[in-house]
Design brief:
Blueprint (H helix, E strand, L loop, with lengths): L3 E2 L3 E3 L2 E4 L2 E2 L2 H6 L3 H20 L6 E5 L7 E4 L24 H28 L6 H9 L13 H13 L3 H18 L2 H15 L4 E3 H12 L11 H6 L5
Antiparallel strand pairs: 1-4, 2-3, 5-6, 5-7
Helix pairs in contact: 2-3, 2-7, 3-5, 3-6, 5-6, 7-8
Length: 246
């Protein structure tokens, strides 16, 4: 396998030292079938959570070859170092802000958190382990609850920042993150919604680059095979958690 070479650098006492590293294309080729399947289920989990809330029609495409993992691109999403700026800091709301407006932001934040966490949940459901995925991801990414690194744009960091915007730097924010992880697991454990994940993921495994929006929508619609959105069909508790029009 050909390697991308960095120019030779002079080193005292040594004639030359050559650094070589695989190119991105070569790294992609090195991805094992198990890793690609994990990526497929991760991205399908994100898509299924959008589908659950009826917002999957803003999906633009799913790319299986970005940064060795994958990405779901959605219309209107902010692709910057501060992707959650549209959610206000609830603690900063003045007392005269209507309670229904405050509640609408909180519910929107919860939906977004579940969307970010759904990739991890789907991967864990595909390959369960004794170590819970939430604790694993927090440890893996080295998230410090007392710090706010806005340049960190992976899914867990985004969910983490939303929790802090909704509840501030306190125990309530941590409890919210844990609760949204549990709700995400609960939603994807529903047989019909999990069937949506599986149907999309198995199709993603077979592609080399990206899948366009219409195909993504069609696969999920066919797997669900009902007119109403899943949030209204997978249990009464979900109607209470996310009222229609919220």
């Amino acid at each position: 396998m050909a390697l991308a070479k960095v120019p030779e650098l002079p080193v005292p006492g040594i004639s030359t030292l050559t650094y070589s590293q695989p190119s991105l294309k070569e790294l992609r080729a090195m991805q094992t079938p198990e890793q690609k399947r994990g990526t497929a289920y991760h991205e399908a989990g994100h898509a299924a959570m959008k589908f659950m809330f009826g917002t999957h029609y803003n999906i633009v495409h799913i790319d299986m070859q970005i940064h060795m993992r994958g990405t779901l691109a959605a219309a209107g999403e902010v692709r910057t170092a501060e992707p959650e700026e549209w959610i206000p800091v609830i603690a900063d709301f003045p007392p005269d802000v209507p309670s229904d407006l405050r509640s609408s932001y909180i519910l929107a934040g919860k939906r977004s958190m579940m969307g970010y966490l759904a990739g991890y949940s789907a991967e864990h459901r595909l390959c369960p382990s004794e170590y819970g995925w939430l604790a694993k991801q927090l440890d893996m990414h080295g998230i410090d609850w007392d710090e706010d690194d806005r340049h960190d744009i992976h899914d867990m960091a985004r969910a983490f920042r939303i929790a802090k915007r909704l509840h501030g730097d306190n125990d309530d924010a941590w409890r919210l993150l844990s609760q949204m992880a549990a709700w995400t697991d609960e939603a994807l454990s529903h047989p019909k919604l999990w069937a949506v994940v599986v149907a999309l993921a198995e199709q993603l495994v077979a592609i080399k680059t990206r899948m366009g929006c219409k195909r993504v929508w069609g696969i999920m619609d066919n797997a669900w095979n009902e007119a109403s959105v899943p949030c209204l069909q997978i249990g009464r508790k979900w109607r209470r958690r996310f009222p229609i029009g919220s």
